[in-house]
Structures are given as structure tokens and as C-alpha cells.
Write a structure and sequence with these properties.
- The strands form 3 sheets. Strands 3, 4, 5, 6, 7, 14 and 15 form a 7-stranded mixed beta sheet that branches. Strands 10-9-8-11-12-13 form a 6-stranded parallel beta sheet, with helices on both faces.
- The protein has 9 helices and 15 strands.
- With about 350 residues, it is an alpha/beta fold.
- Helix 6 runs parallel beside helix 7.
- The protein folds into 2 domains: about 150 residues, Alpha-Beta Complex (Quinone Oxidoreductase, Chain A, domain 1), CATH 3.90.180.10; about 150 residues, Rossmann fold (3-Layer(aba) Sandwich).
- The longest helix is centred in the middle third of the chain and has 14 residues.
- The structure holds NADP nicotinamide-adenine-dinucleotide phosphate.
- The site of NADP nicotinamide-adenine-dinucleotide phosphate (NAP) has 29 residues, from helix 2, helix 3 and helix 9.
Length: about 350
């Protein structure tokens, strides 16, 4: 079923998952399309971002946002178009980014939305992916936390993913020796042949320790960590003095479980290294500047990215499953309605 102009389909969190999300946890409902109040706009969601962190939002404990309440529509990061407006700041037809929820429609005051000015040479979906959160996350973790120095070695995990693939390319442009770790020969080939990252490790098929020894002969100076668990342990065992580890996420543990070895963590002490968690929201003051830089790189053909679009709001459980099995090729989006003329 596609979106309707009178009804609003919504995914409701019915039960909190302990492990992977399945049909017990999420339920699709439908209510009447909301009507904007004075000062509000009505937005039709076009793209819904499905990030790994959506799984964390479903837990009982707060993450970097308050826990998703049970029985309520799921939080969701969306790109949409204004279809009715009670605020001249956001006329009908304006594309906006916002927290539009896992649903077809929402209303909000204009101040809670970010108007977009898409470049005609860039796909609209890029404004909810490479030129948005993922791009700023890659940029902030690399520049602010890793503090890169030309010639040093950077290892990136989930390297063919939406954040990871940008980190790899931005790192290579800074003359770092970049090693990307990803799951599968196809992902590694894409990193090498399309993104220009010569050194890759397929952690599903190769001996990661042996490959790290071969590809990082001078040790590891920086890690951009997206995965955590045993993968991170192996990297910590090879860090150099004063290494910097940008802890962006630990996707291997989001469905539960996952431990770090005390021996590996002790390497942070013996190498006087710094491991720092960071949140992209603390870097939003750089948003316009970084998005403009990344858009220029995209237009010059110097930044590759992939957007994995599934059609239909009903695909949310599939999209979530894809992320945790590495089946997504780049940013996982759902297309909920047409970009124009719905
Ligand atoms: N700190 C922040 O502000 C911030 C902002 C955005 C994202 N993040 C974090 O950045 C990381 C990447 O997010 P993304 O949106 O770019 O997703 P993504 O990398 O495009 O997709 C997730 C990828 O993680 C890998 N993966 C999943 N389960 C795994 C496991 N058990 N072991 C190893 N690899 C696994 C898979 O790639 P393979 O096929 O290679 O295994 C999968 O494709 C996540 O940890 C996310 O939470 C943090």
C-alpha cells in the first residue's frame, strides 16, 4: 500500500526488542492525516533514513535521545516537502529535513525544520545522506577526533557503509594511508575501484590480524570505529603511541551482547592513546560549511557515495534487518512518496 492523501500510516513500537527487531516489536497503524495548527506546516515525508541507531532508540534506557515511548509512532529522520503552510518562512513546495517520524505525514512549526536548497546536479536523496548527518559525522570524527596528520595510518571499520566510505575518501584526500575493513568482496572491490581506497580487508573472508600486519607495517595511528567488539580489540592491539580512536558507533552490539577485552583496552594506557566517543549533533554549528564542502566534492566527482533505497514504509523491518546483516549498500533509505506531485 502506498501513501494516501487522507490517511497517515505510522509504525508503532509495540514491544521493546531484546535482540533483533521482528514483527512482534513494530506494528503498522493508520490515523487521519494531521492538520497543521496556526504557525505550523504540513509535511509529506519522501525519504526516511534508517540508521543503525534506530535500534538503540527502541531500548528502555535513553541513548543520545530519550527512549522511544511504547505505543507511540517511531521516531524517524526524514526528508519531506511542505504541502500546506501557515508560516510564510516555509512556503508550499519547500523541501525540508526534520524529525518527521516513521510515518507518511507530520505537522511541525517551521522553526523545527531545516529548509533545503537542492542543487539540480545532485539527487534529492543525497540531502538525507551524504550531504547530511553521515557526511558531517564522517567529517567531524575524522577532523575533530582523529586529528589527522599526512602520512599516518587510518583504519576504518564498516568502511563501505554510509559513514565509513566517506571517512575513507576524506582520509585519502588528506594523504593518510587508509585501510578499510568491510564485509564481503563486492564491498571491498567498490572501495578499491570506485572510491580509490587501495588497502581493504574483507573481514568475512580474510584473516584480519594477518592482513592488518601486512597493510599497516608502521602500526595504526587513527581508528574510525563503527563496529566495536572483537574487531576493535584487534585494532587496539596494533595502535601506535598517542593513537587517536574516534568512537563513532559500535553496531556489532546494538542488538545486544558484545564485549571488549581488558587486554586490548589496556593498550590505550600503554600507548598513551586517546579513544573518544563523539556525537554529530555537537558539530551542527559546522553543518552549512561542511555540507557545502561535501557538495562541491560530489559535483566535482571526487566523493563517491551509495544510497540504498527501498520502496514503501512497510519495508522498515526489512531495512533494519539489512543493516545488521550488512546487506545495505550505502545509506539505507525508505522512499515513502514521490519527490514531486504526489
Ligand atoms: N556518533 C554519531 O553521531 C553517529 C552518527 C551517525 C552514525 N553513527 C554510527 O556510525 C556507524 C555506521 O553507521 P552508518 O549509518 O554509516 O551505517 P552503515 O555503515 O551504512 O551500515 C551498517 C554496516 O555495519 C556493518 N555491520 C553491521 N553489523 C555488523 C557486525 N555485527 N559486525 C561488523 N559489522 C557490522 C555492515 O557492514 P559490513 O557489510 O561491512 O559488515 C553494515 O552495512 C554506526 O555505528 C552508527 O551508529 C554515529
Amino acid at each position: 500500500m502506498t501513501h494516501s492523501t487522507t490517511q497517515n500510516r505510522q509504525w508503532i513500537l509495540r514491544e521493546r526488542p531484546q535482540g533483533a527487531v521482528d514483527e512482534r516489536h513494530l506494528q503498522m497503524g493508520s490515523v487521519e492525516r494531521p492538520v497543521p495548527a496556526a504557525g505550523e506546516v504540513l509535511v509529506r515525508n519522501i525519504y526516511l533514513l534508517v540508521p543503525p541507531a534506530m535500534r538503540l532508540w527502541m531500548n528502555e534506557e535513553d541513548s543520545y535521545v530519550p527512549a522511544q515511548p511504547l505505543g507511540e509512532p517511531m521516531m524517524g529522520i526524514t526528508l519531506g516537502i511542505v504541502e500546506a503552510s501557515h508560516d510564510p518562512a516555509l512556503p508550499v513546495g519547500t523541501y525540508v529535513n526534520g524529525m518527521g517520524g516513521c510515518q507518511d505525514w507530520f505537522t511541525a512549526p517551521a522553526a523545527q525544520l531545516m529548509p533545503l536548497a537542492p542543487h539540480p546536479g545532485v539527487p534529492l536523496a543525497a540531502y538525507r545522506s551524504v550531504l547530511d548527518v553521515q557526511g558531517l559525522t564522517a567529517w567531524a570524527g575524522l577532523h575533530e577526533v582523529c586529528q589527522p596528520q599526512a602520512g599516518q595510518t587510518l583504519v576504518v571499520t564498516a568502511a563501505a557503509g554510509s559513514v565509513g566510505s566517506l571517512v575513507c575518501q576524506l582520509g585519502a584526500q588528506l594523504d593518510l594511508h587508509v585501510v578499510g575493513i568491510a564485509g564481503g568482496a563486492d564491498k571491498c572491490r567498490w572501495l578499491r575501484e570506485d572510491c580509490g581506497i587501495a588497502a581493504t580487508i574483507d573481514y568475512k573472508a580474510e584473516d584480519v590480524g594477518a592482513r592488518l600486519a601486512a597493510l599497516c607495517p608502521r602500526g595504526i595511528d587513527m581508528v574510525f570505529e563503527n563496529v566495536g567488539g572483537p574487531m576493535l580489540d584487534r585494532l587496539l592491539e596494533r595502535i601506535n603511541d598517542r593513537a587517536r580512536i574516534a568512537l563513532c558507533g559500535m553496531v556489532a552490539s546494538y542488538n545486544g551482547g558484545g564485549t571488549q577485552s581488558a587486554h586490548a583496552l589496556m593498550r590505550l594506557v600503554t600507548k598513551a592513546a586517546r579513544m573518544e566517543g563523539f556525537l554529530v549533533r555537537d558539530h551542527f554549528h559546522r553543518y552549512a560549511e561542511v555540507a557545502a564542502k561535501l557538495q562541491a566534492l560530489v559535483l566535482e566527482g571526487r566523493l563517491e557515495y551509495r544510497i540504498d533505497i527501498l520502496d514503501g514504509l512497510d519495508q522498515l523491518p526489512v531495512a533494519l534487518e539489512n543493516l545488521f546483516h550488512g546487506r545495505n549498500l550505502g545509506v539505507q533509505l525508505l522512499r515513502l512518496s514521490p519527490e514531486r506531485g504526489a
